[in-house]
């Protein structure tokens, strides 16, 4: 369970970094120009967190319920997305006043 919490925190931090950080503006601009669907998705922390969580589930294979593996992995993805969204919102709220938004 601690592993899922840690991976969930990483999911939120990575999703926020990919979507809101100025470091990746070049990638956002390029994707919006060449692949508009991915460009829009990369601007959404919620959308991006699903893909980041999927990546972590494929790599680490966390099992929360110990039932039929595909169901267990799907539940793990949604738990990671939930934890990640709480983390991302907390970080974003903390730094939003500093960014002037």
What does this structure look like?
The chain is built from 5 helices and no strands. The chain is an all-alpha fold. The chain has one domain. The chain is globular. The model has no long low-confidence stretch (mean pLDDT 90).
Fold topology:
Layout: H1 2-20, H2 25-34, H3 36-41, H4 45-60, H5 69-99
Helix pairs in contact: 1-4, 1-5, 4-5
From the alpha carbons, calculate the radius of gyration and give it in angstroms: 15 Å
Q: What about the largest sheet?
A: none
Return the structural class: mainly alpha
Number of helices: 5
How widely separated are the two ends?
35 Å
What is the residue-mean pLDDT, rounded to a whole number? 90
Regions with pLDDT < 50 over 5+ consecutive residues?
none
Oligomer: single chain
User: What order do the SSEs take from the amino end to the carboxyl end, as H and E?
Assistant: HHHHH
Q: What's the overall geometry?
A: globular
Proportion of helical residues: over 70%
The number of distinct structural domains comes to: 1
Structure characteristics:
101 residues; mainly alpha; 81% helix
Give a brief rundown of this model.
The protein is mostly helical and 101 residues long.
């Amino acid at each position: 369970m601690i592993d899922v919490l840690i991976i969930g925190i990483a999911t939120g931090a990575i999703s926020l970094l990919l979507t809101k950080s100025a470091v990746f503006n070049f990638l956002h601009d390029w994707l919006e120009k060449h692949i508009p669907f991915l460009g829009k998705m990369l601007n959404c922390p919620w959308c991006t967190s699903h893909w980041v969580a999927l990546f972590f589930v494929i790599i680490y294979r966390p099992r929360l319920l110990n039932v039929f593996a595909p169901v267990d992995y799907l539940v793990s993805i949604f738990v990671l997305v939930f934890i990640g969204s709480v983390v991302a919102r907390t970080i974003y709220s903390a730094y939003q006043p500093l960014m002037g938004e």
